[in-house]
Amino acid sequence: MSLAASSHDQRFGLSRVAVLPGPLALDGSATLSPLEIAYETYGTLDADAGNAILVCHALTGDHHVASAHPRTGKPGWWQRMVGPGKPIDTDRFFVVCANVLGSCMGSSGPASIDPRTARAWGMTFPVITIRDMVRAQGLLLDYLGIGRLAAVVGGSMGGMQALSWAATYPERVASAVVIASTARHTAQNIAFHEVGRQAVMADPNWHGGDYYGGEAPARGLAVARMAAHITYLSEAGLTEKFGRRLQAREAKTFGFDADFQVESYLRHQGLSFTDRFDANSYLYITRAMDYYDLAEEHGGRLANAFNAATRFCLVSFDTDWLYPTAESRAIVQALNAAGAPVSFVELSSPYGHDAFLLESPELDRIVAGFLRA
Amino acid sequence: MLDVGCGTGDLMAALRDRSGVDARGLEIDAVKVADAVARGLSVIQGDADVDLAGYPDASFDFAILSQTLQTTRAPHLVLDHLLRIGRRAFVSFPNFAHWRVRLSLLWGGRMPVTRLLPERWYDTPNIHHVTIDDFRAFLKARGIAVERAWFLSGDQEIGGSAANFLAEHAVFLLARNQEDCSRLSQPV
C-alpha cells in the first residue's frame, strides 16, 4: 500500500467499500474471509497518519456520520459533532467512520452474499461480538495506512467499541471518548433486546432468517424497534412530547387504533425503521451487544482491561436509564485503578439515552476541549 | 497530583503549564467539570465523600483538598482517603476561630458571614466548621504528621501560636503515618 495520503487516493472519501482479504478470526471461533467494510473519510490524513479519529456508530447507525445519506438524502447522523470547525474538527483531524460488521448498511452481515454459496448468509452468518467489530475496523485502518488513532469516539454501542478499542489495541489508541455507554450489558439490557429478537422471530415471514428475495419480517422488526425506542427516551421526555394527548381525534374510540399520540409515534418509528434496516442484522448486532462484558474478557476485573496508555473522556446523561450514570462511574473507577488519565461528567438532559445525538453545547465543549488537549 | 474539589482546574492548569505536573481532579459541579475538561484537564465529576474510595492506594504523590474539608459530610474519612491515595496531602480550610467570626457570634449573636465564609447559615455548603486548634487536636489524635503549616490573614502570614485567633485560613501539609497506611490498605 502506498504511504502517500493524496487527496486523489481512492481509499479516501465518501461511500467507500473496502474488500479486506482477512481472514478475520472471530470470538465465536469462526473466521471471515474476505469481508467488506463500508466507510467514509473526512479531512486530510497527515503525512505521519497521526491525526486520525475513528467515529463508531450505534446499533442501527451507518458510516454516513457527516454526509447526506446517498439514498434518503437525510443529513449525517452526527453532523453537529463532525465537520469543519465542529467539535470533531475535520479541518484538523482525518475522520473515519465505518459501518459495523454484521450491519446491513454496506459492511458484511447476514444480508450479504456468502461467497461459498452465492446466497445471502441469513442465519449462517457467524455470531459476532463488539470486539469482532473492532478487529474488523483494525483491518480497515491497516488498509488505510493508519497505525495509531489520535482518538476513537462513540456513543452508546459506539462507546462500547471505543472501550473495546482501548482494551484490545491500547497501543493504537491515544485517547477515547465514550458517551452514554457501558462496559457490559446488564440483565435489563439483555431482556429488552430479547423482546425485540423474539418479536422478529415470531413474525411468520422470518422463516429462520431465510427471507431474502421474499417478504421481510417487517411487523416483527417494527415491534422490536418500538420496544427498543422506548428505552432511548425518558419518561419526562415522553410526557413532555406526548403526555396523554390523543392522535387527531376528540375522544377515545373504545377500540385498538392508535388513540394516543405516543402510540402513533411508536408505530411510525417501528414502521419507518423496517424500510432501512434488515431484521437479521438487528438480531446479530443486539446479540453482539448482549455478549459484551469487558470485565469478563479480562479475568472478571474491569481495571485489567485498561492501562495508562490511553486518555479517556466519559460522558453520561442523568435521564439515561438504558446506560445510566452508574455504568459510566464503574468504568471511571476501573480507569482510576488502572492509572489511566480520565475525565468524566454527567450532563443534564430531559431526553434520556438519545441525548447524545441531540443538541448539547456542553457535550460539544467537552469533546472539543478533550480532543484539543 | 490529585486536586479534590478542583473547581474549573485553575491550580491544575497552573501546575501543568509551569511544572509539567500530571494533575488529576475531582469536582462535584458538572459545569465546572465541563470547563476543566474543555481546557484539556483530566477531571472527574464526583463527590469527595463517595468517590475517593475508588482511587487505589498511594496512586498520587500529592492529594490536595483546598477549602473543601468543611463542606464534606465525613471530613475524617475524607482525610483518611486523602492520605491513603496520596503520599502527602495539602489541606486548607477557613478558620472558624478567627476573631471576626468570634466577634460576630459573641456580640452579634448571629452566624458569621465573612469574606471567606460568605454564605448565610441556611445556604452555606460549609456543614463542618472547624478551627485551627480543632484540626491540630484531630491530627494529633489520629497520629497524622504535620510536615508544614501556613496560617494566613489576607496575604499576611500569621505565627503558629496566634494562628487560631488571627488567621483567616490555614494550609497544612500532612504526611501519613506508616502504621495508618498499612491499616488503610487492607481491602475493605
What is the structure about, briefly put?
With 373 residues, chain A is of the alpha/beta class. Chain A has helices at 130-144, 157-168, 187-202, 218-232, 235-241, 261-276, 279-291, 325-337, 361-372; strands spanning 16-20, 24-25, 31-32, 35-42, 52-56, 82-83, 88-89, 94-98, 113-114, 119-120, 151-155, 175-179, 311-317, 342-347. In chain B, 36% of the residues lie in helices and 24% in strands.
> So, CATH architecture of the domain at 47-95 and 129-185 in chain B?
3-Layer(aba) Sandwich
Give the strand order, joined by hyphens, for the main sheet of chain A. Answer: 1-4-8-5-11-12-13-14
Q: Find the CATH topology of the largest domain in chain A.
A: Rossmann fold
> Largest sheet of chain A, if any?
8 strands, mixed
| N-end to C-end Cα span of chain A | 31 Å
Q: How much is the radius of gyration of chain B in Å?
A: 17 Å
User: Kindly state the mean pLDDT of chain A as a whole number?
Assistant: 96
Overall body shape of chain A: globular
Organism (chain A): Sphingomonas palmae
Enzyme class (chain A): transferase
Domain AB hydrolase-1 (chain A): 51-359
Family (chain A): Belongs to the AB hydrolase superfamily. MetX family.
How would you characterize the overall build of this protein?
- Chain A: It is found in: Cytoplasm.
- Chain A: Residues 51-359 form the AB hydrolase-1 domain.
- The complex is a heterodimer of chains A (373) and B (188).
- Chain A is 32% helix and 16% strand.
- With 373 residues, chain A is an alpha/beta fold.
- In chain A, strand 2 (24-25) and strand 3 (31-32) form a beta hairpin.
- In chain A, helix 3 (187-202) runs antiparallel to helix 4 and helix 3 runs antiparallel to helix 7 (279-291).
- The longest helix of chain A has 16 residues, at 187-202.
- The model of chain A has no long low-confidence stretch (mean pLDDT 96).
- Chain B has an 8-stranded mixed β-sheet with strand order 3-2-1-4-5-8-6-7, sandwiched between helices.
- Chain B starts with a strand and ends with a helix.
- The mean pLDDT of chain B is 91.
- The longest helix of chain B has 11 residues, at 75-85.
- Chain B is an alpha/beta fold and 188 residues long.
- Chain B has a domain at 47-95 and 129-185: Vaccinia Virus protein VP39 (Rossmann fold, 3-Layer(aba) Sandwich), CATH 3.40.50.150.
- Chain B contains 8 helices and 8 strands; from the N terminus they run E-H-E-H-E-H-E-H-E-H-H-E-E-H-E-H.
- Classes of the chains: A alpha/beta (373), B alpha/beta (188).
- The interface between A and B is medium-sized, with 24 and 22 residues.
